[in-house]
């Protein structure tokens, strides 16, 4: 936070995703992890950052040693970097538990201008599209949205629950390099889902892990965290 304040990367009303994005790129350049996620364990232990990257531990340290500003390395805690290699693939039919921080939104034309798009909560979008129908279940709408994303990435959604749901605004620089808070007043949906999935296409699933789910993957959203389930 001290580094971000010095670099004028903090904006009232915005989240810290852009700050982490800039910090990671400043430290690791094109090797910077994306997607990533800041884990905050409710005071049980200090916050820590997880990320997927196409780089070895040696490669990351080599880039830091050659190019990284010492103040950035200190702010990020590069000395505590720990790396593990992900499996080459998960076999088709493998069932996995998951946790995912994501922004469940759809893009919508703004004010009739095709070139102007705004993001809207997919639940609100469906509710407004059917004003005379019964109000859909938020969990069901989010589950359908997630199932569609997973299906494109080689996985089938088995179960899903909402771990938490809040609103947050995205901070980023505009074309004039001014730091601005984007999105509707009060921000957009910022959700954490948990559940189980089944791998259907190992190659596509590996690509999904590397790419992430949904929008704003460069700012702390979309990292699919996995855990084993009893067979």
TrEMBL record:
Signal sequence, renumbered to the chain: none
Highest taxon in the source lineage: Bacteria
One Pfam family of this chain: CRISPR_assoc
NCBIfam families the record matches: casE_Cse3 (TIGR01907)
Record-given protein name: Type I-E CRISPR-associated protein Cas6/Cse3/CasE
